[in-house]
Amino acid sequence: MTAPVDFSQIQGLVRFGYGSLTEASFLLLTIRDADAARAWMRFAPVSNAIEQEAPPKTALQIGFTREGLECLGLSQDTLAGFSIEFRAGMSGVPGRSRMLGDIGKSDPEHWAWGTAGKMPHVLVLLYAQPGHLSEWSEAVKGTGWDAAFDVLACLRTSDLGGFEPFGFKDGISQPSLDWELKLRATNDQPTYTNLISLGEVLLGYPNEYGRYTDRPVVSADDPYASVLPVAEGAASSRDLGRDGCYLVLRTLKQNVQGFWQFVNAQTASGPEQSDDLAAAMVGRRRDGSPLGPLSEAPIPGIESKTAAQNQFTFDTDPNGVRCPFGAHIRRANPRNADLPTPPVRGLQRFLQILGLGTNDLQSDAKASTRFHRIVRRGREYGSRVTIEEALVESENAGTHGIHFICLVANIARQFEFLQSAWLMNTKFDAMTDESDPLLGNREPVPGAAPTDTFTRPHEDGVRDKIHSIPQFVTVEGGAYFFLPSLAAIRYLSRDSDDFLAHASFVGEQ
Ligand code: HEM
Q: Where on the phi/psi map is residue 230: left (φ > 0), alpha (ψ -120 to 50), or beta?
């Protein structure tokens, strides 16, 4: 029996996007002195996931790379409990870079951070109400910070009013997490639901397979282990992973001018047509409205505040006429269930389960969505550019992009699968020669057709093809972090004996 959720132990970002804290910066740190770092961590006012009456004024979250955990003295035995992807890192293995599409201009050899010699140990995420970020940053540092850390980079963010730099409303669709632990998720799921098992994001809880995702545990005999919960299903161990998750961070630079100038050049007939093409590439209009009708029946787990823009599936658009198969949001979340869409019932369903159903091109081209959801928590950077400004040639267009963040329990099955099999793959949903129209790197695949196409099917069966799409998004840095529970942060800071030096620390929650 899984114990109920203790929100006081979970970092707040898992539950909240901190949308009212519109100022944020992400500090990438290396540890200069492990004792001093542990001492700072003991006093760091990390925000938890308890709902407060009034929105918080500030928030602080902390993550660690494998290198950071090693620096803090975590044993190799315990580290072996973390997933292979986390231990290997985002940039360390050429095969992984190829799979993620990090080649050509996005090759880690060009990255500003996240590669050998530029690998952060600690990620400090700072959030504040407008005008309070620098004050909050100083308060968080307190004394002892300079002895503990060197700042490798400070990723600044900007408030673009809920829109990403290309000008589309962002942050609309998120999975709902089963905080009440009511789902028994092992059964077949015949229709799409937006509610997913808590164990799809947090370690230490059953996932969509009804199992515990591999997680780091320590022996109950470890002298510092008493701050950690007993591991579910392994009573002689304490769970270092429970209530924590993995955090994927990628700096994605967007060529806003390039995007709108290309779209404009394809549609000489006028701004309305360019808007249509851009919306087809994203899968939503700029204001966030979906391209197809909303579902009449409520979809479980769609929050009422987003229902007007998010209560839909692609079941009513099986040929991709309204929202092309290759559109960013249709790739990122095909909104399908365990059986091929549209759902079939009775004898047909039975035949499909046995693998004897009709086999058209789309029938099993996508995996079931529920095993591949991510919680997105990224923030934009750079200034807002209007379409009119983007269409003017300018040498000094500034830099824009997203510090993309997602939270998952399984990096390989969730982020890496989504990024490689659905977004970057040039064979998706029975299409070839094209990858995500926003994110694709357009690098040629040896011996294969070009990868820079985008298909728009029409009612009459004609499929328009846009060719020679340039690369709009370049990866400039990235790493996999562990976002531990508050108990795990206490465990990791165990060796600190430097309490007095920090007595002057002022933390504001
Ligand atoms: C610069 C890069 C990116 C841009 C400009 C971008 C833009 C957008 C926009 C405009 C939406 C629709 C609004 C919403 O539902 O929030 C969206 C949705 C989404 N994006 Fe991205 N995105 C980017 C990168 C990524 C990456 C790297 C991933 C995953 C690896 C991703 C996964 C998703 C997912 C899962 C959704 C929600 C789909 C749904 O449930 O309908 N995006 N993105």
A: beta
